[in-house]
Amino acid sequence: MSKLLLGVILVLLVLASVFFGLFIGIQHRLSSIEHGGHEKTITTTETRISTSIVTTTLVSTAPPSEPTSPPEEKKCMDSNCIVLAAAVLSSLDATRDPCEDFYGFVNGGWMDEHPIPADKGRYGHSDEVALKNRMIIRQILEQNASLIPSPDSQTLTKLQNLYASCMDEDHLDSLGIQPLLQVVNTVRGLFNGSTTVVDASHDSQHAFSIAPHRGLTAALSYIHSRGIHALFEFIIEGDVGVDPNAMTLWFYQPGFGLPSKEYFEDKDIVDGYTSTLERFFAALDENSEENVQYWPPFPWPPWGGDDDDKKPQYKTPAELAKAVVEFEGKIAIATLDLDRLQQDPFGTYNPVNARNISESIPQVDFPGYWSSFTPRAFPDRIVVTYPPYLESLSSLLSNTSDYVIEGYLIARVTQSLAEYLGQETDIWKANRELVELLTGIKKGAVGDRAEYCVTKVTNTLGFASGRFFVQEAFGGKSRSKATRVITDIVDAFKHSLSGVDWMDTTSAEAAAEKATNIRIKVGFPLSPNTSDATAIAQYYSRLSTDKADFFGNIQRAAAFEKYLEWQKLGKQRDKEIWEMVPSEVNAYFSPPSNEIVFPAGILQDPYFSKDWPGYLNYGAFGAFAAHELTHAFDSAGRLYDQNGILREWWTNATSEAFEERRLCLSEQYSNYTVDDGQGGHVHVNVSSRWTSGENIGDQGLIQAYRAWTAQYDTSFEAGNEFLLPGLNFTREQLFFISFGRVWGANIRPQTAVQQVRSDPHSPSRFRVLGTLVNIPAFAKAFECPVGSVMNPPEEERCRIW
What we know:
The chain is about 50% helix and about 10% strand. It is of the alpha+beta class. It has 3 domains: about 20-70, no CATH class; about 160-440 and about 450-455, Orthogonal Bundle (Neutral endopeptidase, domain 2); about 475-520 and about 605-800, Collagenase (Catalytic Domain) (3-Layer(aba) Sandwich). The strands form 6 sheets. A 4-stranded mixed sheet has the order 6-7-9-8. Strands 10-12-11 form a 3-stranded mixed sheet, covered by helices on one side. It has a two-stranded antiparallel sheet with strand order 1-2. Its cofactor is Zn(2+).
C-alpha cells in the first residue's frame, strides 16, 4: 500500500508540474497580447522536483532565442564521494588567494583543525597517515594469537611480546637503569680489557657472538653490533664503480649526539647537550655496583708519567661531559658536509684495499673487528666515502685520553638506549629534555604510550608487522592501480624527452633506456615474502622476544638486523629485498639497483585510493611516483646508468646544460627561509647542493600532470574521472589541489631548523610553492595573472623537464 501511495503522489506531482508550466505559458501569452505585443517563441525548462523536467513550447513568428547550454555533468553522490569531497573542502581556506598563497589556500583549513600535539615537533598529513597505519597494527597486536593459524601465530606472538614488554611501564620503572648499566659495564669492561666475550643477544639459544678482542676494538664491535653509531660506521652496499650487485663494505663517518655538525656551533645547544651528558654520567656512577662517585678515580694514573699532558684529570661528571662534547665536536669538524656526502657520488666513491684502513687508523684492530661480524667473508676491498676523515680520526684518538674516549662511547650508548628505560629514571628524563630543546616540543609532554609502543614494534620488526598490515590495508586492486599510475608516469617521462631542449639526442635516448629499465616495486616485498606466512616466520626464526624484557628485546632485534646485514657481504644483491617496511609512509629510489619502491603505507588516503577519480590519484600519489622517478635523473641519480654503475653517461654538453638548470633551482630555493623561533631566519639551502636532489625530484610533478592528461580520454570513458559533489573546481584545478594537500603540515620553529640542517627535503610549504611556480599549467588552471606569486614571468622560472 505504501508503494502504491508513493506512486500516486509522484504522478500527481508530475501532473501538477505540467499544469503549472502550461499556466505560466498562457499567462505570458495573454500578457503580451494585452500590452499590444506579438507572440514570441518561449522555451522554458522548469525543474520542480528532482525527477521531473518539463519543457513547454509555444509557436511564434519571433526570432529564436540562443541555444541552451549542455546539461550539467552528473556528479558522484554515493557516500564515499561525499566523504571524499568533504575532506577536500575542509582542508581549504577559501579566504586566501590561490595565486598568491596556494599552500595556505589548499591547506589552511586542515592546518587550523590539526594543531601540533604537545609531544611532537610537527604534525602533517604524513604523520596522520602514519598514526592511522599504527592503529591498524595496534588492533592486530591486541588480537588473540592462539586463534590465528601457525606459522602466523608464531610471528604474531613475537610482535605481541615486544608490544607487551613496551607497555608494561610499571615493570620498566621497577628496573630503573639496571638494563642500561649492564650494557655500559660491558662496554667499560671491553674497553679496559677485563671482559673478553660478548653475547650480543643475552640469549644463549639465539646468540650472535662477538669474538674475544680487547680495548677499543672490542668495545666498538659490541656497540656497532647494536646499530649504535660511534667513531665510524660500516654499511654493506653494491660496488657501484664495478658491479652494483656485488655487495661490498663501505666506510662512513658516524652520526652525532646532535642532529648535525652545525649544532656544535650553537652555544645554547652545546650547553644543553653537555648538561644532558653530565646527568647521564652522574646517574650511571651513582647506580654502578662499585658506587664510584668520580670516574675515573682521581688522580689517575697514580704514578704520573710522560702522558700526563694529554690525559687531564676529570674529577666530576660535569668535567667529563664537557671533555666528551669537545671531543665529539672535533669529530664533527673532521667529517664531510652532508651536502657533499649526499650529492657527490664520485667524490664519495674511493675504493681502497682493506689494509689501508688498518694502516690509517692503527688504534683499531680492523681484522679483529671484521671477524666479529663476518668470520667467513673477510673483506679485501672497502669503499671509503671521505678518506681525509681516516687520518683525522686517528689523530684525534692519539691526542685524546682513553677515559674521554671511553666516556664518549658510553655517552653514545646511553643516549641511543635512554628511551627504552622507565620514564621515572633520570637518564630517560635527561634525554627527553634534550629532545625538547632540539624540537621545541612542550616540556614534560609525553604522547600516548600505545602509539609509542606500536612505533617501536614497526621500527623493530617491520616486515613481520607489515605482513598483517598489508592484509588489512592493501587489498583489492590497490597494487595494480598504483602500478598503472607509475607506469603511465614513466611513459610520460620518456615521451617528454624529445621536447627537452637542453638534452641532446644521445643523452635523451640513454635516459629513456634507463627509465625503461627501472624496476617498480609496489606494496610489499617478495623477499622476505610479506604475503607468505612461512617466509616471514622463517625470517624471524632466530629472534626471540620476551614480554617482560623490553630493553632486551630491542637489543636482540638490533643485533639480529646487524647480523643479517653482514651476511650480505661478498654476495650478489638480492633484488627482492626492500629498504623500507610495508607500513612505512615513504618511498625511495635506489641508484645502484635502479628501482623505485612504494610501500603500502604510503598508498593510503590522502595520497591514494583505488576508488578515487584519476585527477586526485595522479595529483597526489602521482607526485610521489614522479618524484622517485625523477631521482633517477637528479643531480646525483643521473650519474648512475641503467645498470646502476657510477659513470658519466650523458654527453658533456648535456651535463653542462643540466648543471645550469640545477643552479637556477638552487638559487630559487636559497631565497626561502624558515623562522628559527628567536627572531631570525635560516635559509633552506644551507649550501648550493644540500636540497638539490630532492627539489629536482619535486619538479617531476609535471610528469604526473602529463601522464594524467595523456590517459584522460580513456579514463573518462571508463568512468574514472567522475566529479565530486560540492567542489566547484575544474579537474585541472583539483589535480593541483590534490598535490598541494599532501604536504599540509604544522611545524615548530626548532623542528623546522633541525629539518633544514639535517634533512635534504625542503620544508612542506616550499615543496608546494617551489614546484608549482615552475609549471605554467598551474597558473593557467587557476588563471593567475602574470607577476603574481604563483605565476612569475617565464624568464624567472627554473624549468628542467
